Amino acid sequence: MIRLPIDQAVEQLARHVSGGHGGRLFVPFGPGEPLVLKEMLSATEGLADRMCFVGAPIPGINRGDWSALSQTASSEGIFVSADWREAFEAGRYTVRPLTWFQAFGWLGQTPLDAAVFQVSPPGPDGQVTLSVASDLAPAVMRRADVFKLAIINPNLPVVNGPSWPLDAFDLVCESDHPVVDYDAGELDPAFEIIAGRIAEATPEGASLQFGVGKAGVAALKGLKGRRGLKIHSGMVTDPLVDLLDEEVVDSVVTGLAAGTSRLRDRLGDSRVRFEASDFTHDIGVLAAIPRLVAVNSALEIDLFGQANAEFQNGRQVSGIGGLTDFLRGARLSEGGVPILALPASAKKGAISRITPCLPPGAVSVPRADVAVVITEHGVTDLRGLGLDERAQALIGVADPAHRDALSNAWDEMRRAL
Q: What is the DSSP letter of 362?
């Protein structure tokens, strides 16, 4: 292990990755994104040449396009976002259609020349943690074939989770720089209603999971006043603080904490434990959790029960992430409730998000994996329903202004089946 000032460490990392022929660098994203590294690579012309940045940038949290650091740079991930749409269209960004659990396996074996990690300051035992981004990075930390740089950031809290001694890294430096914040924003009226419906669908003693975005915020905000709940989720956000303060939750297992300093200041709570994604998203682990309530969202659902979480007007705008991992795990859980929660319409009611039939290639979740659907207009459980029953149930939670058109479309499609 070599300790250097950060400017020298970054130069050495760049030489190790590029080596005159290009190379692949793992970058942690989510709230663990090392923005100081990006700034330093962009400050020196040619430093990022031929680099391929490998990881899983998350829409809404990670806003920058790392492949733009050089005309010869590229990147790989599992989501598409408006923030790196240009790189995707130009062929500089490769999207891999993987679930979050599959992404962990991919990072454990894809060719990599080096990796960078943001870590918390060493604790009393001399160990450093991956702090707010303990999810995918352990897949790379466990590899012996990758050159590793640790950036110690005093703004990252020490957490109860995966940890390593500093000599597990080839190179160590320090940098006092801000941590990436995340705010899903205020809930609109539809999600305020949906929050109540999620709470009603959550049994006593349940364990909850929630995805990124407003559905996750709604899931948390609707639980005030409850007791004895648990959280087992790939990610937690700021509303968790209120649930800890009000003793709504007894325990929290997560891999990623995306929020503000309000959340980070509470991650040392003895009830909070971090685990890698091969645990948080493992379907066997999830199936063994009683009453697992998985709350996720989609852009639209068709009358067959298929869900689209990735495409808008034929253009890819997101990815699968942990969506199917948790829907399948909750379905196998004893008393589990796999939920897709979404507003029934968009564009001020002009567009129904319950649609007759998804176009080819736009199915993120097959119909066998969609169970409980919640909109502001109601709750329906598709499990065990026949084709016509499923269609009618989904029409029943659609925006009333679109129900007649959906019924007519189903009648026409049904005759052709």
A: -
Domain shared by 167 and 303, yes or no: no
Query: Do 206 and 161 belong together in one domain?
Result: no
pLDDT tier at 225 (50, 70, 90 boundaries)?
confident
Same structural domain for residues 282 and 214?
yes
| 114 alpha-carbon distance from chain centroid | 24
Q: Domain check: are 126 and 245 in the same one?
A: no
Residue 184 lies in a domain: no
Q: Is the pLDDT of residue 158 over 80?
A: yes
178: which residues sit within 8 A by CB, 6+ positions away? 35, 155
DSSP string, 304-334: TS-EESSEETTEE----BTHHHHHHHHHHST
**Cβ atoms within 10 Å of 167's Cβ, excluding its own:** 9
Provide CB contacts within 8 A for 288, sequence distance 6+.
333
- Asked if residue 404 and residue 288 are part of one domain, the reply reads yes
Q: What is the DSSP string of 155-181?
A: TSPP-SS-EEEGGGSSEEEE---PPPP
pLDDT digits (tens, 9 = 90+) for 37-71: 999 999 988 889 999 999 999 999 999 999 999 99
DSSP string, 270-309: TTEEE--HHHHT-HHHHHTSTTEEEEE--SEEETTS-EES
Question: What pLDDT is recorded for position 20?
Answer: 47
Q: Are 94 and 70 a contacting pair, CB within 8 Å?
A: no
Q: Based on the domain organization, do 87 and 214 belong to the same domain? A: no
Structural domain including 238 reads 189-416
Total domains in the fold of the chain: 2
Indicate the burial class of 252 (C-beta count within 10 angstroms; 0-12, 13-18, 19 or more).
buried
18 and 50 Cβ atoms separated by less than 8 Å = yes
- For residues 210 and 202, give the distance between their C-alpha atoms in angstroms, rounded to a whole number: 12
Q: Do 101 and 205 have their domain in common?
A: no
Size of the chain in residues: 417
- Give the contacts of 22 (CB within 8 A, at least 6 positions apart): 49, 50, 51, 52, 72
> Taking a C-beta distance cutoff of 8 angstroms, is the pair 99, 324 a contact?
yes
Domain-located, residue 236 = yes
User: How close are the terminal C-alpha atoms of the chain, in Å?
Assistant: 65
